[in-house]
Amino acid sequence: MDTQATTPMTRPGGRVLADALVAQGIDRVFAVPGESYLDVLDGLYDVRDRLTLITCRFEAGAVNMAEAYGKLTGRPAAAMVTRGPGACHGSIGVHVAMQDSTPLLLFVGQIPFEETDRDSFQEVDYRRMFGPLAKWVTQIDDARRIPELVAHAVDVATTGRPGPVVIALSEEMQKHSVSVPDIGRAPLSLGLPNPAALAQMQAMLAASRKPLAILGGSCWTDAGRGAIRDFLVGHGLPVAVGFRRQALYDGTLPNFVGDLGVGSDPALVAKAREADLVLAIGTRLGEATTQGFQLFPAGAAPVIHVYPDAAEIGRVFRPALGIASELNAFAHAAAALPLVDAPWAAWTRSLRAVREAGRVVPDYAGPLNIAQVMRELEALAAPDAIFTSDAGNFATWPARFINFGDRQRMIGPTNGAMGYGVPAGVAAAIAFPGRMVVTFVGDGGMLMTGQEIATAFQYGAAPIVLVFNNAMYGTIRMYQERAYPGRVSGTALTNPDFAKYIEAFGGYGEVVADTAGFTPAFQRAVASGKPAVIELRMNPEQITSRATITELRAGRMVKAS
Question: Residue 394's closest CA among 441, 448, 450, 447?
C-alpha cells in the first residue's frame, strides 16, 4: 500500500482522525459518545461506509468489546470514550488488553490544551493515568500530526508483544483545519526465529523423554495455528494451553492434555512437574499458568521460551533457550523442521488420559448437574462457535468439561476482570454475524455489564448468554470459606429473574433448574434468533467443580481448584 496519499485536502482534525483510522485498516469503533470528541464523531459520519461505529452503553463495555474484537481477529479495533469519568470507566479494558497481550487503540477526548493544569472540567493527565497500563500513551495537540501518530499507534499495538495504546485528543485540535496527507499501513518484516536456535530446540527435544508444550499468546492467524498444530501433532508432543487460551488448540486432538491456570486439574499440574523439558510457545508463563510462579522453579525442567518480545524472555523464568520470534513465523518454521524421534508416546497418552478422566461427569448433588450441561453444550455447539467468558469460578466448568474444536474459539480475560463476558459476546456476534456465539457469565458479572446486551439488539446480533447463578460472588466466597470458614461477609447476592431481564429488552429467556431442561432450552434459544439468556440455577453448595462449601469448611479443598 502507498505510504502517502498524493493530494491532501484541507480537513478539520476530527475528519483527519476518521480518515487516519480508515487508512490504517481500522474497521470498527466501539464508543460511548461524549462532548469532548464531537468533532471526531462528525468525522466518523463521513466514513460510515468504510468504518462501523458501534454505540455502546457503558465505557467499560465499549473498551472490552474492542479488546474482544482484537483477540478474535488479531487486528486492533478502536474504542472511544470521553474525558475524565469516561476514561476511568474504560481503563479496565486497557488493563485487560495489556495483561492479555491484545492489540487495542483507545481514544480519549481531552480538555482544550490551553486549559492544561487548571483543574479544568474533567481534566486528567492521561500519560500519568495510563502509563502503567498501556504500551504507549500520547496526546495529539496538533491536527497535522494525526496521521503520523495514529499510524505509529497501530504499529506499537500490533508488533512485539501486542497491547493497548491510548491516544488523548485535545478538544480544539479536532476543530483545526489542516492540509496533511493520510498515511497508510507500512509493510513490516516480522521477527523470524534464528535457524541456529531452531536446531538447538530440535536437539533438546531429541534428548527429552517427558516434554510438555504450553501454548499461549495472541494474534495467531488461522495459518499459524494450523502450522503449530502440524508441528506439535507431528512430534506427538503433549499440549497444554495457558490460562484462558483454549482458542489456540484443537481440544479434540489426542495430544491435547488440558489447561494450566486457575482451576487446573491437580493431576495435570502434578504431571507437569514431571516434565523434563517445557516448550513454552507464546505464553508469558504468567502467575496463573505457572500456579503462582511455582510450577517451573529454578533447577526444574529446562524451558524453551518462544515469544515475540525478547524483553519478556527470562523476565520471570530463566530459560535454557530463548527464541524471539513472531509466533506465526515460528509456527511455520517449526512445521518445516524434520521430525525428531519421539520416545514419549506413552507419556503423551498418559497426560491425555488425565484430561479425559477429568472430563468424566461426577454425580453432583442437586437437580442441575453443570458438568453434564457442559458436555451437552459441547455436542450442541456449532463447529465454528465462538465462546466468550467472564471471570469467576463458573469459568472452570467449561474449561474442565468441554474440549473445544479446531474451528471454535474461546476467549476470556486472563487478568481476571469481571464484566468482560457479555461485552465480548456482543462484539463477537457483531463481528461474526453468521456464527453461533455463547457467553459464560456469573450472576455477579452479568449485572456489571449485562446492559450491553442492548447493543446486540441495536446492531442485529444474537449472542446466547449462559448465566451461572449461585447467588454469590463465588470465587471470593471460595477463598473466604477456605480462610475464614463459615464467616460469610460481603459475598452474598440478591438477583433478578434473568430470563425476565432479557425479555424486557425483547429477547429470549429461560430459567433452567434441572439437567434435563438444558438441551431443549438451548435449542429454543438458538431457534429464536434473538439475543438470549439461559439462567442456570446452580446448587450454591457446589462452589467449584472439585469442592463443596462443606468441604472447604472442613479444610478439604484441593489447592489447585
Answer: 441
- Is pLDDT above 80 for 3? no
Report the SS3 class of residue 472.
Answer: strand
322 and 243 in a single domain? The answer is: yes
Q: Kindly report the CATH number assigned to the domain that includes residue 512.
A: 3.40.50.970
| Residue 483 cell numbers, joined | 480462610
Domain that holds residue 64: 10-179
Q: Residue 3 domain-assigned?
A: no
With contact defined as beta carbons under 8 Å apart, do 182 and 212 qualify?
A: no
pLDDT at residue 2 is higher than 60? no
Q: Write down the pTM of the prediction.
A: 0.93
259 shares its domain with 371:
no
Distance CA 443, CA 452 (A): 15
Measured distance CA(16)–CA(44) in Å, rounded: 10
Q: Cα–Cα distance between 378 and 410 in angstroms, integer?
A: 12
DSSP 192: P
Find cell 523423554 and name the residue: 209
Domain of 218, CATH number, reads: 3.40.50.1220
CB atoms closer than 10 angstroms to residue 245: 26
Question: Which residues face 258 on adjacent strands?
Answer: 240
C-beta of residue 492 within 8 angstroms of C-beta of residue 554: no
Is beta strand 10-12 parallel, antiparallel or unpaired with respect to 177-179?
antiparallel
Q: Determine contact, residues 219/158, Cβ cutoff 8 Å.
A: yes
Q: What pLDDT does 121 receive?
A: 61
Query: pLDDT per residue over 368-420, tens digit each?
Result: 999 999 999 999 999 999 999 999 999 999 999 999 999 999 999 988 789 99
Percent of the chain past pLDDT 90, that is, above it, reads 83
> What's at 247, amino acid-wise?
A
Whether 136 and 240 map to the same domain: the answer is no
Reported as a pLDDT band with limits 50, 70 and 90, residue 236 is very high
pLDDT digits (tens, 9 = 90+) for 159-183: 999 999 999 999 999 999 999 999 9
The amino acid at 65: M
Say yes or no to pLDDT of 5 above 70.
no
* The pLDDT of residue 116: 67
Residues 76 and 129 in one domain: yes
Q: Are residues 364 and 352 in the same domain?
A: no
pLDDT of res. 299: 64
C-alpha cell at 514: 434441572
Residue 317 has pLDDT above 90, yes or no: no
Helix ranges, 512-561 (H): 518-528, 549-553
Count how many domains the chain has: 3
Is 1 inside any structural domain? Answer: no
